[in-house]
Design goal:
206 residues, alpha+beta, Metal Binding Protein, Guanine Nucleotide Exchange Factor, Chain A, 7-stranded mixed beta sheet, 3-stranded antiparallel beta sheet, 10 strands, binds zinc ion, oxidoreductase, EC 1.8.4.12, Mss4-like_sf
């Protein structure tokens, strides 16, 4: 009898707590730069480990096609400003996204469906970050690029919101851009999707 009660107790406590129940509310609330398809088919931990190992230590894997730089604690962007100095030159929304790692609402950004020829620069420091030739429509609700301008993008492992992702920032000023996802099959030399907030960008037409 005691065994039966214990078994029931275990069942009652384990059934509702599935991965689905834990992760779905987080995903719906914040919609972090990740389409539903990729969220369910990729293993975030393995994916991020592959990115990190490929970018930092390997000299022969396909990940070396990426020209981004994996950030470390000693990798300090050349442009340094205090929060007050950033607030003086950025709008409140720009400050929220670039300096506090915010995310704009999906399908809301100026450059989500923007297709003109030119260069996307950092709204914080004017550094060239992406060209229109690397832009594609991923359907995720944010501007998507296969790759950044060589040396313009830094990467950092981001374990926020209960997920393992790779944050991308402007290498010149450290401004938050979005996240990069690998192996989704969209194309590009490195099979990567740079998912970038429109708010972080300014466009300069050619
Ligand atoms: Zn910048």
């Amino acid at each position: 009898m005691r065994l039966q009660i214990r078994t029931l107790h275990l069942l009652r406590n384990t059934n509702p707590i599935s991965t689905k129940h834990i992760h779905n509310p987080i995903y719906k609330v914040r919609s972090p730069h990740r389409p539903l398809l990729a969220f369910h088919t990729n293993t975030p931990t393995n994916n991020s480990n592959r990115n990190f190992m490929g970018s930092s230590f390997s000299t022969s894997s396909t990940a070396t096609n990426s020209t981004d730089t994996m950030s470390s604690k000693t990798n300090t962007p050349p442009v340094q400003k205090s929060d007050d100095e950033w607030r003086a030159i950025l709008s409140p929304e720009q400050f929220r996204i670039l300096r506090t790692r915010g995310t704009e609402q999906p399908h809301s950004g100026t450059y989500n469906h923007h297709s003109a020829s030119g260069t996307y620069t950092c709204v914080g420091c004017d550094a060239p970050l992406y060209t229109s030739t690397s832009k594609f429509d991923s359907g995720c609700g944010w501007p998507a690029f296969f790759e950044g301008v060589p040396g313009a993008i830094n990467r950092r492992e981001d374990g926020s919101l209960g997920m393992q992702r790779t944050e991308i920032t402007c290498a010149n000023c450290g401004g938050h851009l979005g996240h990069v996802f690998k192996g989704e099959g969209f194309g590009g030399a490195a099979d990567e999707r740079h998912c970038v907030n429109s708010v972080s960008l300014t466009f300069k037409e050619e």
